[in-house]
Inverse folding.
């Protein structure tokens, strides 16, 4: 159980991002903080008031987690990435990439320029950023153009050299006029290289020069000029605040760091996709007394990537793992392309590994017991189910349920658990197309058939068009299907799989007379489960979640009136009479076949309403015969 009061005590006084979860573990809010300790504490103080919406959000918080960063800027950019990835309910302002400006150096041109950009494109230009202050970016661009005397025009060079007179910038000594051929391409490129070096972090010479000029102007009573230098100095220092949460290489990579003591270890994995840090996960590892850090990393890589569907092109580590070349060859075989395991020694990549290391150490020292419990209720619970069923490498579980109101407006649900946790992005809803009436077996047959035929079709499209691995969630078939029921539901699933020539294990979640889970039905045998075990609790959570998701979908359809009953079109039939008809008759077809006298005997009905219903369906039949 997550103890909020106890976890608040563990918060570090450092910048970072905090992530709020509700009771179903869904992310409901993501925020940034200069001090995680102070900011997160504020949410749980009775005297703190941030409005009605935040108050509603706080009441739903069941647990929180956080990622420590090295600066407020990193926290801000990471917050943006995570909000775009998870779209939490209470984050009303979802920022887009254009919120953050970049400095663009057009290295693809013969005479490059330094420009302000709101987008990062895959071209020959070099991008620096993103930065939080557009004003600081513009000031810095103006500064480097003044210092290095680069062109700011949009002339096509060298094609247009000598065609027009030099502009004002040449006459005020802020440009060397490459448009006139007054500076060679090689000499101009040296100036551009200096700009790139400056933007890469070599700020000290420029900062020192501006400070000297500011002090000299102040000493000479030239206060306006001193203020100008001071503002430029502030802009450069703001640009100098580097961040490593977004990188301009646009690559997919995993960043792995390890924190270990004599008994336990925590491995932290940062997921960088398209150059942006979009999430992280951590794993508790039981280690032997003789295990080295290199061995632990090697073992983790084998176990982690044997069960994950996506393998990035680059994996960054704090140190060399055992069997590095063998691991790279194995990963390349699984990925279908080259995989590089790197140990960065400098630059932003090294800083990102350090950040992952810092977070791993925090988890190890503060969250050890919580991680053990979480592993027990997720991975450990799956291991228990594996043992019960005699299976291996159980990762993905799918469960299905049917919901209807006396057979009307039947819907189906599919929920997904991966590594013992719900994967809500893969949940799917089905509105039944071919079944009328309360026939759960036929409804389940339709849902399962649609689910797996859709997946098979997507896989065919992937092979034909060479689409990316994660083309659609339906392409990932489960390691186990769990049906809400016993022999009957299991047999329906096996029938569908047999018709589609698929081989996927199926088990039923059997309930007792009090509607409580009592065991699993697998291979024609009912297997009892220890009610106190984590495996039993996970099965119960899966069963409850499948039921909840189906009911929630059904209610949303009814509440939004997305499902329109034909009974609503009959004069004299309102909600009360429609409900009475639905309660008495098992399907719409049964209502059509009922006599006028039977209809009149229904609760809430009278002879006039019964005649209206009876005549309505007779007229419909007549219309259909005429149209045929």
């Amino acid at each position: 159980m997550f103890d909020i009061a106890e976890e608040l005590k563990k918060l570090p006084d450092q910048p970072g991002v905090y992530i709020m979860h509700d009771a179903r573990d869904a992310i409901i809010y993501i925020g940034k903080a200069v001090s995680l300790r102070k900011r997160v504490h504020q949410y749980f103080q009775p005297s703190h008031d941030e409005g009605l919406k935040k108050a509603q959000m706080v009441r739903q918080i069941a647990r929180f987690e956080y990622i420590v960063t090295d600066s407020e800027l990193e926290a801000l950019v990471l917050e943006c990435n995570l909000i775009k990835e998870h779209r939490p309910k209470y984050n009303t302002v979802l920022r887009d990439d254009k919120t953050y400006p970049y400095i663009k150096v057009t290295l693809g041109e013969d005479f490059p320029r330094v420009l302000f950009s709101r987008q990062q494109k895959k071209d020959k230009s070099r991008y620096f950023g993103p930065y939080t202050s557009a004003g600081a970016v513009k000031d810095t661009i103006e500064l480097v153009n003044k210092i290095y005397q680069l062109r700011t025009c949009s002339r096509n060079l060298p094609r247009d050299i000598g065609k027009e007179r030099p502009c004002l910038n040449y006459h005020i000594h802020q440009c060397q006029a490459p448009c006139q051929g007054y500076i060679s391409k090689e000499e101009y490129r040296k100036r551009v290289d200096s700009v790139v070096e400056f933007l890469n972090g070599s700020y000290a010479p420029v900062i020192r020069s501006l400070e000297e000029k500011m002090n000299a102007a102040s000493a000479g009573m030239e206060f306006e000029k001193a203020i100008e230098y001071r503002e430029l100095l502030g802009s450069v220092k703001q640009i100098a605040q580097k961040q490593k949460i977004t990188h301009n290489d646009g690559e997919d990579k995993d960043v792995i760091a390890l924190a270990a003591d004599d008994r336990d270890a925590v491995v932290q994995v940062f997921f960088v996709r398209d150059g942006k840090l979009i999430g992280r996960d951590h794993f508790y590892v039981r280690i032997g007394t003789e295990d080295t850090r290199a061995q632990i990393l090697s073992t983790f890589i084998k176990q982690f990537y044997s069960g994950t569907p996506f393998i990035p092109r680059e994996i960054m580590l704090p140190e060399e793992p055992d069997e590095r070349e063998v691991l790279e060859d194995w990963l390349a075989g699984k990925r279908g392309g080259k995989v590089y395991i790197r140990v960065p020694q400098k630059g932003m990549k090294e800083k990102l590994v350090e950040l992952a290391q810092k977070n791993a150490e925090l988890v190890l020292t503060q969250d050890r017991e919580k991680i053990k419990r979480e592993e027990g209720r997720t991975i450990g619970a799956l291991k228990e189910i594996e043992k019960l069923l005699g299976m291996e490498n159980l990762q993905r579980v799918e469960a299905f349920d049917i919901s209807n109101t006396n057979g009307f407006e039947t819907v189906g649900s599919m929920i997904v658990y991966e590594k013992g946790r719900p994967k809500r992005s893969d949940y799917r809803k089905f509105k039944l197309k071919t079944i009328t009436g309360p026939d759960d077996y036929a409804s389940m047959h339709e849902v399962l058939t649609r689910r797996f035929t859709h997946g098979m079709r997507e896989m065919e499209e992937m092979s034909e068009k060479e689409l990316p691995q994660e083309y659609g969630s339906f392409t990932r078939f489960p390691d186990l299907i769990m049906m809400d029921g016993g022999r009957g539901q299991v047999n329906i699933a096996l029938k569908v799989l047999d018709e589609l020539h698929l081989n996927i294990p199926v088990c039923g979640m059997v309930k007792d007379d009090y509607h409580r889970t009592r065991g699993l039905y697998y291979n024609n045998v009912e297997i009892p489960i220890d009610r106190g075990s984590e495996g039993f609790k996970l099965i119960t959570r899966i069963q409850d979640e499948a039921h909840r998701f189906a009911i929630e979908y059904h209610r949303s359809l009814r509440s939004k009136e997305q499902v329109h009953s034909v009974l609503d079109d009959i004069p004299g039939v309102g909600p009360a009479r429609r409900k009475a008809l639905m309660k008495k008759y098992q399907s719409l077809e049964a209502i059509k076949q009922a006599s006028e006298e039977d209809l009149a005997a229904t609760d809430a009905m009278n002879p006039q309403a019964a005649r209206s219903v009876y005549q309505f369906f007779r007229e419909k039949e007549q219309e259909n015969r005429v149209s045929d």
Remarks:
- The domain at 253-367 is CATH 3.30.420 (Nucleotidyltransferase; domain 5).
